[in-house]
Amino acid sequence: MKMKFTNIATVTAALALAVSACSVDPFEDGAGHGAPDMPVGKIVNTSSNSAKGSILVKLNDASQADALQTRLEECGIVVSPVFQGLTAATTKAGSAENNLARWCRLDFSEYADLDSLAAVLSGYEEVGRVQFNTRLKLASDCRSYPVTSVPTKADFSDFNDPQLAAQWHYHNDGSVVASARRGADVNVADAWRLETGRPEVIVAIIDQGVQYNHPDLAQSMWVNTAELNGTSGADDDENGYVDDIYGYNFVSNSGEITWAKQGDSGHGTHVAGTVAAVNNNGTGVCGIAGGDGSSDSGVRMMSLQVFDGNAGGTVDVSAAAIRYAADNGASIIQCSWGYAAGAYQSDAQWTASARLEAEALEYFLNGGKTGKGNCSAITDGNIAIFAAGNDSDDMASYPGASRGCISVTSFASDNLPANYTNYGPGCNIAAPGGEYYTGDTYYDETCVLSTMPTESITSVGDDGTVTNTPANYGYMQGTSMACPHMSGVAALGLSYALDMGKTYTREEFMSLLLTSVNDIDSYLVGSKTTLIVNPATNTGSIGELDLAPFYGQMGTGTIDAWRVLMQIEGTPCLVAEVGKSQRLNLDSVFGGGSENLTYLSVEISDDDYDAIGLMTDPVIKGGQLLIQPTYYGSAKLTITAIAGGSQVGGGANIGGMEITKEVSVIARGISNGNGGWL
């Protein structure tokens, strides 16, 4: 019979007295001489910011779980596996799954002293590691603001979603506010002409619950048909989880996904909309990989809930969600959460101290139980994408800072770092995350617009402020919002790779993503006026944000969806300055002797012609491409030249061979003499 503990000392005392009081001696070491000294290194982290009432242990052998429960049950402690369905009996000794099966969660009174319990547990011979169940945090202030007016239809896309025009982060024409910079976006509008997402690609939204029946998300949700068509309360697909139709709620340990409890902010639903809100459905907003409106287009999203109202957000639930993603088909995990920046300052420190999530992430990255990626465009692993964090600190937060993950910093509509973003070591790439303040003026519309729960959510902030968040759609800011832009572009890239029949290793695909960028460093001169937040007091005032510390520290550049697709095609990209007649060197297309070739033609489709606003046809002059774009956008051209001579050989002629190459032109604001970025 389990005991119910009601004070801080009872559980600890019960364990300490267990040598004589419990039927099984918890400190038995075979020699009968009582408790040994605490093994050095068994406790891998500290109890700072840990959840009460639970602790994590890793057994030396997965088969020892029942024995540990027998030891502890008379003390009222419940032992359960962190990873459902993984036991010594269901996994092969020495396998990656068997390693995860060694992790257990111990639940007890919330009044128990965690440090004392950890010390006692570390004396158990079957316990190899003890880890406190640390709380993680979302990379957003979780404040949202409603759409106050419906803009006119976007003129940069044929999609009919009425609020697409307000999603400057997809196509920024500089009109959202006076300081907005044209081209400060992910350049996805033209990419949609080539790819809108394929349902074979699954993105796991590890976050608050996603409203799976939202009118702008329902078609994009991953559906576990075995559970949907099965028996309620049964594990129909035998994957260890009951009624996991759209994903799973790891906080409540049920298939009931929630999104509107006290304490929820709509964060998960907002993040999901950026990845894959349904496109061209005449409703709301667009998602980066949300399809073209047809039922068989767009990537799919599973909702893996690790924050539930005021509960959750702990290491054990996040690790369980990551493993679920690996074993149930997700190719990408979208993670807008982590530790505070500086909590860990090296991969070695994080791996040693955050053992559970490090092992779960390694399992996911290496392809889960199959050892392969969950999308055929990646043959040997999956992609983990994390927010860099909102601490205004000079390093990324973990887990995203670790070598195997992509960590995303945030820029605003002015193409400059957002005032809150982390930067520096561990930061890999930048994406639009929005910023409320532009200069000394507050704007909602300079934040990221996406889906929100259809019912209003009431939340109470740390200062007691009551906030009623909007229904259906709203604006939010944060590296939380930058992160799903990266996840959506990665999903778009995987979809296009499937179209093209391309395969990659995980490292190759990550390299492709991180080199499909536009420059940000050339803009980082001087300062900008914005809200400066004091992290110690969580208060802010208008001031000057020095841009120099961000130089070379925001990652490789700003993610560009068009460039991703061009790299997958193998099509070289040239950059042209908008509003200027210029000659672009063609060495990257035809080699070092490009100026000496004889060129026959330059062809461009009407759609591509319009995409960059050409006023005259592009031509070759002096062996260079003469072009004058007037719109920010991207286009493809087909250039035909002669290799070896001034005429094509054949028949009565002696001459060269006709060669044809496709080239992409990206029209932006700054370029150097050879068409590359400064």
Secondary structure blueprint with pairings:
Elements: H1 10-16, H2 18-21, E1 50-59, H3 65-72, E2 78-81, H4 96-100, E3 103-107, H5 114-121, E4 127-134, E5 137-138, E6 145-146, E7 202-208, H6 225-228, E8 247-249, H7 267-276, E9 300-308, E10 311-312, H8 315-327, E11 332-335, E12 337-338, H9 347-353, H10 355-365, E13 383-387, E14 406-411, E15 429-432, E16 437-438, E17 441-442, E18 448-451, E19 457-460, E20 466-469, E21 473-476, H11 479-500, H12 506-514, E22 517-518, E23 527-534, E24 539-546, E25 558-559, H13 561-569, E26 573-577, E27 582-584, H14 587-590, E28 598-603, H15 606-611, E29 619-621, E30 624-627, E31 633-643, E32 657-668
Parallel strand pairs: 7-9, 7-11, 8-9, 11-13, 13-14, 14-15, 26-32
Antiparallel strand pairs: 1-3, 1-4, 2-3, 5-12, 6-21, 9-10, 16-17, 18-21, 19-20, 22-25, 23-24, 27-30, 28-31, 29-30, 31-32
Q: Would you mind describing this structure in some detail?
A:
With 678 residues, the chain is an alpha+beta fold. Helix content is 19%, strand content 23%. The protein contains 15 helices and 32 strands. Strands 7, 8, 9, 10, 11, 13, 14 and 15 form an eight-stranded mixed sheet that branches. Strands 2-3-1-4 form a four-stranded antiparallel sheet, with helices on one face. Strands 26-32-31-28 form a four-stranded mixed sheet. Helix 7 packs parallel to helix 11 (479-500), helix 8 runs parallel beside helix 10 (355-365) and helix 11 packs parallel to helix 13. The longest helix is centred in the C-terminal third of the chain and has 22 residues, at 479-500. The model is unreliable at 1-8, 16-40 and 671-678 (pLDDT under 50).
